[in-house]
Amino acid sequence: MSVTGLSARERSLLPTDLPLALLDRNGIPVDDPALEMPADEVLLELHRRIVIGRRFDTQATALTRQGRLAVYPSSRGQEACEVGAVLALREQDWLFPTYRDSVALVTRGVDPVQTLTLLQGSWHLGYDPYEHKVGPQCTPLATNTLHAVGLAHAARLKGEDTVALVLLGDGATSEGDTHEALNFAAVWKAPVVFLVQNNGYAISVPMSKQSAAPSLAHKGIGYGVPSYLIDGNDPAGVYATVREAITAAAAGGGPALIEAKTYRIEAHTNADDAGRYRDSEEVAAWLDRDPLDRIERYLSTRGLLDEERRAEIQAEAEDFAATVREGMNAEPELDPAHLFAHVYAQPTKALREQAAMLAEELAS
Ligand SMILES: Cc1ncc(C[n+]2csc(CCOP(=O)(O)OP(=O)(O)O)c2C)c(N)n1
Ligand SMILES: [Mg+2]
């Protein structure tokens, strides 16, 4: 696309024509990259966390088949985003995830069983958001964008060095909340990074029916938000971009919008049949761009990843999966009265009446 006729400020906000990357689909470093390659320790940690995250994901999917989880939205294929973005966060930063981002949560250190509590249907939220600075996994699309901007703006007013990273999908960019969040993030120069995981679909709705924009990253320009278009299957590239955006936001540069082009390998959730709206050739083409293969190939070529380390990480991932199984197979201890807790600061009259009615019924 020609940028002739645009002002310098407009040009500075635009994403690149081609998605930015550090590693190509074969794990070979791209020529003349616009991003800085992360240190070797970071690359090794990206690899380790992706292996563990993927094992967690297959374990969670298996638990839905065993009736231990009500629903699970898999992020298989999207691990470069799930892991790359989270490892780029500093300890003091906040993460605002969606239902798709359980792997991001466990990468941040949230207990895996607590992570799955919501999807098990046994409690509103299984973890303490303050412990790891992770907001609740958001099911209403895009509402977390507003939470992230609110938190980031408040932190800035208080003089705290905190950046908020919000994860959202391609479909969520059509929600009004996303636009309100982008607008006020830019007006307030709030330190917030919007990472759109464009996985090609909003359930069965493909990108071609979602947006006519040249890219989702282009949506930033109308709000004055600088944008990046990146290869969302390159763990090194996702890490480097999110890190760069976080550093700029922390330095007072305001928000950034990143569109990461990726693909959801599994169905929307275990309740969806993806074969009804996409063909297997499309899936196969994306399997060929697998983020785990990519980083493995790069690290192996560099001599940083041998069979021994690979086996160690695999064993660690198996242990992690066993912990998840054990925790999820234990019957949750539930108090029906908790249904009414934490909904309102001051429960409404109707809720108080319902709670009393339930208590009476349980006592009889
Ligand atoms: C406000 C709102 N509208 C509709 C839905 C129903 N819904 C759940 S997931 C989904 C698709 C979201 O697609 P996308 O944002 O691309 O995220 P993905 O599931 O692909 O990660 C829809 C429409 C919802 N959860 N919230
Ligand atoms: Mg999507």
UniProtKB/TrEMBL annotation:
CDD domains xref list: TPP_E1_PDC_ADC_BCADC
Oxidoreductase keyword on record: yes
Presence of the UniProt keyword Oxidoreductase in the record = yes
Co-factor(s): thiamine diphosphate
| InterPro entries for the chain | Alpha-ketoacid_DH_E1_comp, DH_E1, PdhA/BkdA, THDP-binding
Keywords associated with the record:
Oxidoreductase, Pyruvate, Thiamine pyrophosphate
Q: Which residues cross the membrane?
A: none
**Matching Pfam families, A to Z?**
E1_dh (PF00676)
Q: Which residues form the Dehydrogenase E1 component domain?
A: 49-318
Report the protein name in the record: Pyruvate dehydrogenase (Acetyl-transferring) E1 component subunit alpha
Which classification does the entry list for the species? Bacteria, Bacillati, Actinomycetota, Actinomycetes, Pseudonocardiales
This protein's encoding gene: pdhA_1
